[in-house]
Amino acid sequence: MRKSRTNMVYLTRIEHFNAAHKLFNPAWSREKNEEIFGKCANENWHGHNYELYVTIKGEPDPETGFLLDAKKLSKLINSFVLDKLDHLNLNEDVDFMKGVMCSTENLAVAIWNQLTKHLPATVQLHCIKLYETSRIFVEYYG
Amino acid sequence: MYVFLPPDCKRMNKKVAVFRRETFNAAHRLNNPDWDEATNYRVFGKCNNPHYHGHNYELEVKVTGDPAADTGFVMDLKVLSDLIKKLVVERFDHKNLNLDTQEFKNLNPTAENIAIVIYDLLRPHIDGKNSIQVRLYETPRNFVEYPA
Questions:
Q1: Residue A4, phi-psi category: left (phi > 0), alpha (psi -120 to 50), beta (remainder)
Q2: Which chain A residues have a beta carbon less than 8 Å from that of B56?
Q3: Facing residues of B63 across strands?
Q4: Sign of the torsion angle spanned by Cα atoms B102, B105, B110, B112
Q5: Computed from CA positions of residues B32, A42, B146, A131, in that sequence, does the dihedral angle turn out positive or negative?
Q6: A83 and chain B: CB distance < 8 Å anywhere?
Q7: In chain A, which ranges are continuous DSSP H helix?
Q8: Which of A112, B18, B58, B125 could anchor a disulfide with B137, C-beta 3.0 to 4.6 Å?
Q9: Chain B contact for A134, CB < 8 A?
Q10: What are the Cα distances from residue A3, in Å, to A6, A57, A137, B10?
Q11: pLDDT tens digits, residue range A89-103?
């Protein structure tokens, strides 16, 4: 018998935020930080326009046809992620990045952890894709 | 003889604009030291955050003039690229505009003011026969041009 087909769908919402940060390991000397992180270690920070792609997966609700209302997904991302990051300093102002190196990799993992607990049980988080610049991005699949 | 310009370039208006795009990433904040904290927050909103925020700035420099008879160039774009890198990108990239640059010690680093500063940095180094215009993207959706 043919295996029954699932209706698994992936839905992506794109959001953006602007933030300052630096790459600096306080356990190292300034020289070592500059050697490893180059100009990203600049003491007085630099910044980026981050582009965030949040992808969820699941089966569309038969009554609405939606996996999750994209507007609701946007509101969740805004409340639990963007309000805590946008126009802020990632090293200084963000509770969930305290004590963590502010790399794009770690930020993607932290965004996953922030978001996953607030999604309805009918959907799963699939991927966090985070662009630091138009040519540098990371993906995290949990 | 090899011809470096199309034959119809003898027509009246043969000006051409050439463009070079470069990028730099920087932190900044908008703040007027003559105002109190509440006024600064009311006017500049979250851009006033005391710990700064940042952008990927995209810079487009437009040079307009007549293509030279011997090269066919308005301006060699490699030369323009090197100028922008030396005068602008090295100065602002991975810096805090408020704290790390002379230009914004006493000047609010709005996109408007950054564009004017960049124009003034480049203008003396580009042939006076050519006009230049600076377009600066602070985000993909916010950008300014100088001169307007």
A1: beta
A2: 48-49, 133-134
A3: B18, B132
A4: negative
A5: negative
A6: no
A7: 30-37, 70-77, 83-85, 90-93, 104-116
A8: B58
A9: yes
A10: 9, 20, 37, 72
A11: 999 999 999 999 999
Q: HEC string of B53-93?
A: EEEEEEEEEEEEECCCCCCCCCCCHHHHHHHHHHHHHHHHC
8 Å CB contact between A95 and A127: no
Partners of residue B27 in chain A, C-beta under 8 Å: 20, 44-47, 89
Per-residue pLDDT tens digits for A4-42: 678 899 999 999 999 999 999 999 999 999 999 999 999
> Measuring CA to CA, how many Å separate A38 from each of A26, A41, A98, A134?
15, 6, 22, 20
pLDDT at B12 over 70: no
Residue A52, beta-bridge partner list: A15, A130
- The answer, for A45 touching chain B at a CB cutoff of 8 Å, is yes
d(CA A23, CA A41): 5
Q: Please tell me if residue B100 touches chain A, with a CB cutoff of 8 Å.
A: yes
pTM passes above 0.90? no
Residue A63 has phi, psi (to 5 degrees) of -80, -35
Could you confirm whether A16 is annotated as catalytic? no
Q: At which residue do the structure tokens 């199309």 appear? A: B6
| First CA to last CA distance, chain B | 41
Q: Judge whether A132 counts as a catalytic residue.
A: yes
CA distances from A26 to A34, A43, A94, B96, B131 (A): 12, 11, 17, 20, 48
Cβ atoms of residues A136 and A103 within 8 Å: no
Q: Please report the ipTM that was assigned to this predicted complex.
A: 0.80
